[in-house]
Amino acid sequence: MMARHWKPSLLSPIHVAALAADLKAVWSAPTTDARLKKRIVRTVIHEVVADIDEEASEIVLLIHWIGGVHTELRLPRRRRGQRNSTSADILAAVRQLVLIANDDLIAGILNRNGLVTGHGNRWTRERVMRSGRITRFRYSGRRQTGMSHGLI
Q1: Could you give the CA distance from residue 21 to residue 18 in angstroms, rounded to a whole number?
Q2: Per-residue pLDDT tens for 82-106?
Q3: Rounded CA separation 122/90 (Å)
Q4: Rounded CA gap, 110 and 100, in Å?
């Protein structure tokens, strides 16, 4: 099997400027997958240097962008034993939704309402399933096949 060498396509500066102007839309588009997002990030970031500020209890990230600009990003450092739990209200909603919808539909409902996991992530089928196992929700056979009783 021959190795494939990826060669970037050459875009005119006008095309690059047009993409950059609409980067937020490209990034947020449902057709933009993780692979494309990684390519975008690798294109615009030269390197990221991480350090820990013990006094402020923060993680300091210094982003070196292609073109020479630098951005400092400070994130709170998680303390030993600290947990990022999903809100009890969200878990209560999932308990109710579990009775009438499958995991994909529940994830979509939570995401459309701007709700995130305890770690600040978007909901996926796997995260809904994991939250159910952690909190011991009861699963019914109907749940895996989708909606029941026409409630959604």
Answers
A1: 5
A2: 667 888 888 888 888 888 888 899 9
A3: 13
A4: 14
Rounded to whole angstroms, how far apart are CA atoms 64 and 46? 5
Beta carbons within 10 angstroms of residue 71's beta carbon: 11
Residues near 95 by beta carbon (within 8 Å), at least 6 away in sequence: 135, 137
Structure tokens given for 40 = 């975008």
Instruction: State the chain's mean pLDDT as an integer.
Output: 79
**Distance (Å, whole) CA 137 – CA 129:** 9
Ranges of H-type helices in the chain = 13-21, 23-28, 34-44, 88-97, 103-112, 125-135, 141-145
Q: Which residues are 60's β-sheet partners?
A: 51, 74
* Local structure of 138: helix, strand or coil: coil
**pLDDT computed for residue 138 by the predictor:** 53
148 confidence band (pLDDT: 50, 70, 90) = very low
